[in-house]
Amino acid sequence: ADMNSRCRVKRRTAANPMALRAASRVLAAPALRPALRRAPVRNMGHGHDPVQAEADMNSWVKISGGAAVACGVILAYVGYVESQHEHHDHDEPRSFKRIRNKPYPWSCNDCSLFDLKCYAECKAKKQ
User: Fold this and answer.
1) What is the pLDDT of residue 75?
2) Tens of pLDDT along 77-104?
3) Which of 24, 48, 54, 90 has the fewest CB atoms within 10 Å around its CB?
4) How far apart are alpha carbons 127 and 115 in whole angstroms?
C-alpha cells in the first residue's frame, strides 16, 4: 500500500510541470507574446544606427593608430637612451661562473660546450 502511494505521488508531480507550462502559455500577457517569438538580435554597435556605429568604429581606429604611434615614439626614445650609455665588457673571467664539480667529458674538460674562445686556448696550450 505504501509503495503504491509513492508511485501515485511521483506520477502527480511528473504531470505538474506540464500543467504549469500550459498555464503559463495561456496566462502570458499579450504584449509579451510577439517579443517571445522574435529571434534575438545582436547589437554589436550597442543599438546605434549604422551611421553612428561606423562613426564609433572610425574613432576607435584613430585612437588605436594614435596609441601605436605613441608606443613607437616611446620605443625609439628608450632605444636612443640605451644606445648612449656605455656598456661594460662582460668577457672578464668571473670565478663564480667556473664552478666544476667534475670535468666535462670532452678533450678540453674545463671549457663549457659553447665556449669557443676557451676551447681554442685549450687546444693551443696542448700543442
Assistant:
1) 98
2) 999 999 898 877 666 666 667 677 788 8
3) 90
4) 19
Those residues with Cβ within 8 angstroms of residue 108's Cβ, 6 or more apart along the chain or in another chain = 118, 119, 122, 123, 126
Closest CA to 98 of 111, 116, 114: 111
Burial classification of residue 108, based on how many CB atoms lie within 10 Å of its CB (0-12 exposed, 13-18 middle, 19 or more buried): middle
Burial letters for 28-60: b for 16+ Cβ neighbours within 10 Å, e otherwise? eeeeeeeeeeeeeeeeeeeeeeeeeeeeeeeee
Q: Tell me the whole-structure pTM to 2 decimals.
A: 0.38
**Nine-digit cell string for 103:** 670535468
- Grid cell 650609455 is found at 85
